[in-house]
Specification:
By secondary structure, this protein is of the alpha/beta class. It has one domain (about 15-145, about 180-230): 3-Layer(aba) Sandwich (Undecaprenyl pyrophosphate synthetase). Helices cover about 40% and strands about 15% of the residues. It contains seven helices and six strands; from the N terminus they run E-H-H-E-H-E-H-E-H-H-E-E-H. It has a six-stranded parallel sheet with strand order 3-4-2-1-5-6, with helices on both faces. Strand 3 (about 100-105), helix 4 and strand 4 (about 135-140) form a beta-alpha-beta unit. Helix 2 runs parallel beside helix 3. It is globular, with a radius of gyration of 18 Å.
Length: about 240
């Protein structure tokens, strides 16, 4: 049973913004003697369920790491399968208008197929007025390239070095109009951020779990939120 549904449970501090590194699809499939594509398919179903659950418990921003700039190094077959799953999701997302979730994509779109980019733009336009939650899907995304691109844009605009500060740099990031993540969750047993929200995660609480993404459930979100609720976020203050 969800922690949020137990009677007399202590109220939890819900993060305003959660980031999730959805890791472990391939290993999940390998453990079952399945092709990696089946792990990605199962992971896509979990992604839909977890997104709705985060909205239901009051999370206002959810950013998920769907495909990194480094993931192009995988086999052509695996990359093609991931892109086909993305196409299916983008075509299917129209059936979920009742979810009232705004969908945005962050990352470099230049390397993506034109039909995928068109579907992404259509999804963003169709959901622009939804306000229950904002879902950022990081696609062909890398935190370091994001910072490099921001710096290049600042230079191209001829901004004086004296006027460059943290606020200005943030205004050139993909998430410029959003709060930084309070909590970042990584599944799959790895203990690193892997180029995810490099700038934005400076003060994020980190939560790592051995659970592979296709096995991740609502209860696992509860555990992460419970751990977050117990932490004292001082932001450099000595108190």
């Amino acid at each position: 049973m969800s922690l949020f549904k137990k009677k007399n449970s202590t109220p939890l501090l819900i993060p305003n913004h959660i980031g999730i590194i959805m890791d472990g699809n391939g290993r999940w499939a390998k453990k079952r003697g399945m092709p990696r594509s089946m792990g990605h398919k199962k992971g896509a179903d979990v992604f839909k369920s977890i997104t709705r659950y985060c909205r239901d418990i009051g999370v206002k921003y959810l950013t998920v790491y769907a495909f990194s700039t480094e993931n192009w190094k995988r086999s052509n077959e695996e990359v093609s399968g991931i892109m086909d799953l993305l196409r299916e999701y983008l075509k299917d997302v129209k059936n979920y208008t009742k979810d009232n979730i705004r969908v945005k994509f962050i990352g470099d779109r230049s390397a993506l197929d034109s039909d995928i980019v068109a579907l992404m733009e259509e999804t963003e336009n169709d959901s622009v007025n939804f306000d229950a939650m904002t879902l950022n899907i990081a696609l062909n995304y890398g935190g370091i390239p994001e910072i490099v691109n921001a710096v290049k844009s600042i230079v191209n605009y001829g901004v004086s070095v004296d006027n460059i500060d943290a606020a200005l740099i943030k205004s050139y990031l993909y998430t410029k109009d959003e709060p930084d993540p309070d909590l970042i969750i990584r599944t799959g047993g790895e203990y690193r951020l892997s180029n995810f929200l490099t700038y934005q995660s400076a003060y994020s609480e980190l939560y790592f779990t051995d659970v592979l993404w296709p096995d991740f459930k609502n209860e696992d979100i509860d555990k992460a939120v419970l751990a977050f609720s117990k932490r004292n976020r001082r932001f450099g203050d000595a108190k």
